[in-house]
Write a structure and sequence with these properties.
Elements lengths: L5 E4 L6 E3 L1 H10 L7 H14 L1 H4 L5 H18 L4 H17 L5 E4 L3 H10 L3 E6 L5 H7 L8 E4 H4 L6 H11 L6 E5 L2 H10 L3 E5 L12 E2 L5 H4 L1
Parallel strand pairs: 1-4, 1-6, 4-5, 6-7, 7-8
Antiparallel strand pairs: 2-3
């Protein structure tokens, strides 16, 4: 590999996670006695693989509520909640996402901050390319990532989103780098991996719940594994 100068990341479900402990408590209150943070994360990861081109894109404003309710109701149903309880789970989660300053995407992924610190110590440029609603940089900052990031590209602010290679090229242009000098890490095969490869970056698939065991890609189960790969 040519000399590596930058590591770029997806935002949600890569550097930032949903607040799975909060969601697990909500699910248990609604009747899913065995709901755990791990179970919710795994259910969400399976759903994202199945419907990545829908849930991995930024919905139009008029569709955002529908997409949120649909995805969280599906997760709740997998946890064993009745249709009525699943709808209530989605409603309360949506309310929390709107009213909390960080929304529900407020927890750094395991090892994320330490991994970025170690990569920064290697004098690498670090950045985020996210299909988001305009709040990616604010949410990452509140979660403690601002110190490490040289740029945050939010699809809602630049008018193009993954897997379109253009959004990756915008990041490379800001950093003054060629595509072979950067890698991209994300959790969705059809959105992150396909988009990065289309722009000429080497992709890494972040798969903490092992929902892509059949995929022959550069794949890491934990972000800290990147330190051995790069």
């Amino acid at each position: 590999m040519p000399a590596l100068k930058a590591v770029l990341f997806d935002g949600g479900n890569t550097l930032l996670e949903l607040d799975y402990p909060w969601l697990a408590k909500l699910a248990r209150r609604l009747g899913a006695d065995g709901a755990t943070p791990e179970a919710i994360g795994r259910a969400g990861a399976r759903l994202m693989r199945q419907r990545s081109l829908r849930y991995g894109r930024t919905p139009l404003r008029q569709e955002a509520h529908e997409v949120f309710e649909e995805s969280f109701s599906s997760i709740a149903a997998e946890l064993g909640l009745s249709p009525m309880a699943a709808a209530e789970f989605a409603r309360r989660a949506h309310l929390e996402d709107r009213e909390h300053p960080q929304g529900l995407w407020r927890c750094p992924a395991p090892g994320a901050l330490a991994t970025l610190a170690a990569l920064k110590a290697r004098n690498l440029h670090l950045g985020v390319i996210s299909n988001a609603d305009g709040n990616a940089e604010a949410h990452l900052g509140l979660a403690g990532f601002a110190h490490y990031l040289d740029l945050v590209i939010d699809s809602s602010q630049v008018g193009v989103e993954k897997p379109d290679p253009t959004i990756f090229r915008l990041a490379l242009a800001q950093l003054g780098l060629a595509s072979h000098e950067a890698v991209y890490v994300g959790d969705l095969l059809d959105v992150d991996v396909a988009g990065a490869r289309g722009a000429g970056l080497m992709p890494y698939l972040y798969d903490p719940y092992d929902v892509y065991p059949d995929v022959a890609e550069q794949r890491v189960r934990a972000l800290r594994e990147l330190l051995d790969h790069l």
